[in-house]
Amino acid sequence: MSTKPMIDRYKWYEVVGIYAGIALFLFFVLAPFIEGFMVSLKPLSALFSSPYSFWPKNGSLTAYFTMWESVPGFWRYIANSLFISSVATIVVLILVVPAAYAFARFPFPGRGPLLGAFLAVNMFSGAVLLIPLFRLMRSLGLLNTYFAMIVPGVAFLIPTAIWLLRTYMMRIPRELDEAAWVDGASRLYTLRRVILPIAMPGIIVVAITTFIGAYAQQFIFALTFNSKTEFMPLPIGLFAYFGRQEVVWNELMAASFVGITPVLILIVFLQRYLVAGLTAGAVKQ
Amino acid sequence: MTGSRNTSLFALALLAPALLYIIGIVAYPLVDTVNLSFTNAALRPTYDWVGGENYQKIFRANFEQVIIRTFIWTFFSVLLKMVIGTLGAVMLNAAVPGRALFRILTMPPWIVPMAIGIFMWGWMYNGQFGMISGLLQNFGLVDGPVAWLAYGNTAFWATIVTDVWIGVPLVTIYLLAAMQSIPRDLYEAAWTDGAGRLYRFRRITLPMIIPALVTMSMLSLIATFNSFDIIWILTRGGPSGSTTTMIIDTYRVAIGSYKYGEGAARAVMICIFLSLFCLAYFRVVGKINTGEKA
Q: What pTM was computed for the model?
């Protein structure tokens, strides 16, 4: 306390006010997760009894064990979600690494408008383009395959990834390219052997943010372009259960928690990078 | 580097894969949408040019009501995101122990699969078993169970609240970053002059985060206007159309009823609004940036 600069000292009622405000704010942000977790602990009979009780009476982790039998194919949904996100991330990286390098390094005619055009993709959601995309997927024969979810998903992940990686690559000193060029290295060789290794931390950050984006946004394409249970990602797999009468809510909430755990773990370790990625996503030159 | 023409060609070659991908998956569908909006395309393989008939049809179907509803929905959602996000950022910016942890705890709604967060809201809104109705009853604030998604009015606000919940982390963290980039000397100088906390917020923090606030409102406006998952999962546009926004209406007509032509006409209307927002965005953000440089 004593080492704090005077300006950062708060009176006791200010501290109380700040913590109360933060508590209220975090309650709003976390309430659905808290409630979802409580539901996953309650036995079914307690879930549907009134009056409402927030704390689970004789709560247990039973639902986390029984759900594997009562939600058939649950493993499959999680695996599908991870698979779709992984393939989408790889495709995005293949497309975005050279493009970001081009935008970061070479002054070619039309560079500004082209970058603007890429970013403008962010303004459309998949929902607006659903009809022609549906026809496109059908004529390519991709309906009811993994690709029906991956191919359109990738397009909407490209803009932010380009922007992020371009920003990172602009910080790599130009002298490195020029030195390689003087030594007679071809441009492609320079990209592969000089730029890629240096840009690797940036590429990894972009890969992670892209993966999280791909994992978070699985809904509308999967809902519309795929009707096969064996290809469904987790959100759609669970959505199918939510409409039914005999929903086993505690198990579904447990399933939801298992599904979101991978990204929750990622937040703890990577929040610094995520913040950088998120703030770069907004166009700010 | 040598050879500017050569360089340009190399740069375009590097760009080509990403560019072709976007042309195929975004630009071509966009053109196709406009094209389809003038036809009577449906499930059958062939279709005819019908001129502006689809546009006349959608306005006969009271589409302007849907447009107005979409704007009200979007307006309140963006407004609440900005207000709550600013308050959240101010509190997380306070130099109190634990703020690093609080910042992490802000992120889950943004990062977790959107649909799963919405499922949890669906349970919370449930009248008989959900948390909101349950707690209100326990505290004696309402007499009986309130099924939030069963009535037009409450469903409208319930979907807004969920949309705000998903958008708030991004706004908060973005504004927090803007606040942390304000030079400390400013505060110290004001503090030496005896300026109070509220005064410093009004005269230093707020003016300095205005560019970030404007940028975020515009981005949030575009995202909110496009919002689909929340409404579709919670209400599917109901009860009796009270949460049917333009996107939901488009989806129901095009995918639900297989009327591709009429759906495309709706999608074109959405694109026109989005383009206007986008234009305004580049205008405003451009102005802020040149203003900063001057």
A: 0.87
